[in-house]
Amino acid sequence: MFIHAVSHYLPEQVVGNDHFTQLNGLSDEWITTRTGISERRKAAPDENTSTMSVAVVNRLMAKADLSTVDLIVGATYTPHDTIVTLAHVVQHHLAIADIPTVSVSSACSSLLNAIEIVEGYFALNKASRALVVVTEHNTAYYNEDDTVSGHLWGDGAAALLITKERQSDNDMTITGLLTGGAAHAGKAVEAVVLQPLVRGVIMPYGRDVFQNACIYMPKASLQILERHNLTVADVDYVLPHQANLRISRNVMQTLGLPEEKLISNIQYLGNTGCAGCAIALSERWDSFQKGQRIVVTVFGGGYSYGAMLLEV
Q1: In a designed cystine with 297, which of 57, 63, 80, 307 is the match (CB 3.0 to 4.6 A)?
Q2: Is residue 57 within a helix (H) or strand (E), and if so which, with residue range?
Q3: Who's near 188: CB < 8 A, 6+ residues apart?
Q4: Which of 165, 179, 66, 166 is CA-nearest to residue 122?
Q5: Which domain-ending residue is among 163, 198, 219?
Q6: What is the extent of the structural domain holding 187?
């Protein structure tokens, strides 16, 4: 499989840490020391995961022909509509008839689960050009005055055109992909919860999330490298789920890699859920060099995890 093109969309409104200082007394130093976040984006009142999906797909159309897409996979845990999913919205926008449209949610690891669905369709010869759209509208569901996690969340979207065959020399190869679930571990089913009929997203066991993210992201990264007879010495960049800069640094330390090889956007975007890694990939796309290898590794609420090996 190959990533032929990628794009990202960010809402215009920037929310700095001073907002939370005024709201609940959390200082800029307190937030940045614990999370690495200085600012994040917030969707406008007329924006949601569906509108952001359309916006990011429009940006992707400026880079690639989407008229022959034969599979659409959407991913989000903050859907605007649970019946007309973002995949349906995108299909309607593109006016492509009679193709599979699938939407998934496995928390912040959903990007890799979406791509794994594409892998399955390709393997069964049911598709050859897939559009993957990942987006989160976290600020629709969070509690700003939640001093535990309210300051973490940001909004955004990304879209990827994934093809079965190479389309150009600039395509990025998806060399390997693995996903897993660790819902048996720790406080997995309690640590991060979003129950819309009850309350917004809460994180009552943040330490447990931190500890397990620091276990499973390096573990998955090493597993995907081992499957392809590679070691960390062969890795040029690591792109972890953008949950917390301290977690990302811990992952790098566990892998024995310098921070210069870390790709991170949480400092200015906050935690954008399953969209974070794809947004970062889009931001850095033009800077990657031929022959470089990137490990994308994710971890989400419910303790789903995964890793993907990319080669330029």
Answers
A1: 307
A2: helix 49-61
A3: 182, 212, 302, 303
A4: 165
A5: 163
A6: 172-311
